[in-house]
Amino acid sequence: VSNSEIFVVGTSQAVAPAAVRERLHVDIDDIYEALDAYVSGTDLLEEAVPLATCGRLELYGVSAKPERAAKLLTRLLQRHTGVSPELVLEHSYVLRGPQAVSHLFRVAAGLDSVVHGEAQILGQVRAAAHDERAALWKGPMLHRLFDAALATGKRVRTETDIGRGGASLASAGLEILRKEIGNFSSVTALVVGAGDTGALVSRLLRKAGVGRLIIANRTADTAHEVAEPLDGEGITLEEIPGHLSEIDLAVGAATLSRHVLTPEMLTMSAGDAVSGPLRL
């Protein structure tokens, strides 16, 4: 009989402010590299699936020694980010057994999101479960867990009104802007990131009637791919400074380990601005 137990180590908007989450950010590629480098040679972790979104960073695992495994993963986070052990412990959580299972179900259902019932998180959970790299780490326990969580998230949205209107953090933020700005037709908007979140924000801005839409991404091809159907412009992250003086609204929708907009860049662009104040 296996004594292995499911657990999750993570941080999210529920326990950490944005400034702390930025410091604790780790690229998903680096997470898998760390698993291969530091964990694969031990018997502490039998299965693992990381889940990284703009609001959370979690690693679901299976171990016969979940407490020791969680401590190892916490130390890896400290080592990779340089954040003090005290700060990591203060703004993270470790859940085991039924609590870990229930947590993923809540996440997939949108109950742990800033906007309850937001639709995007279900796709992010699905993407984490189906990531080809996860196939090397995901065993039968996490396979069943993620399948059940995805089914639960879908059922919640089908049988309840929680997802009515396709709520998302992006749509909620846009509604606030609409009340402040009014007509978007004269607005030039910059969306940083062309992934799922960036594409969603871009579609919402175009639907709202934004005058000019610029999408910046690490790779130009992806930026153009998202921008073209929306009658937008695609640029690379390095090209952003050259456009700042034209921008009225900038939306961050990328998970990056460096700052794309710095105070110095914003100060320099303010003197050349051709419109009003820049809203971030």
Number of extended strands:
8
Q: Uncertain runs with pLDDT below 50, 5 residues or more?
A: none
Following the backbone from N to C, one meets helices and strands in this order, namely EHHEEHHEHHHHEHEHEEH
Return Rg in Å: 20 Å
| Apparent shape | globular
CATH architecture of the largest domain: 2-Layer Sandwich
N- to C-terminal separation? 54 Å
The biggest beta sheet is recorded as: 4 strands, antiparallel
Q: Which structural category fits the helices and strands?
A: alpha/beta
Please state how the strands of the largest beta sheet are arranged side by side.
2-3-1-4
Helix content: 40-55%
Instruction: Give the strand content.
Output: 15-25%
**Average of pLDDT:** 85
Tell me what the structure shows.
By secondary structure, this protein is an alpha/beta fold. It has 2 domains: 5-159, Glutamyl-tRNA reductase, N-terminal domain (Beta Polymerase, domain 2, 2-Layer Sandwich), CATH 3.30.460; 169-270, Rossmann fold (3-Layer(aba) Sandwich), CATH 3.40.50.720. 44% of the residues lie in helices and 16% in strands. It is built from 11 helices and 8 strands. The chain has helices at residues 18-23, 28-39, 66-81, 85-90, 98-109, 120-130, 140-159, 169-181, 196-207, 220-227, 263-270; strands spanning 5-12, 47-52, 56-63, 93-96, 188-192, 212-217, 233-236, 249-252. Strands 2-3-1-4 form a 4-stranded antiparallel beta sheet, sandwiched between helices. Helix 10 (220-227) links the parallel strand 6 (212-217) and strand 7.
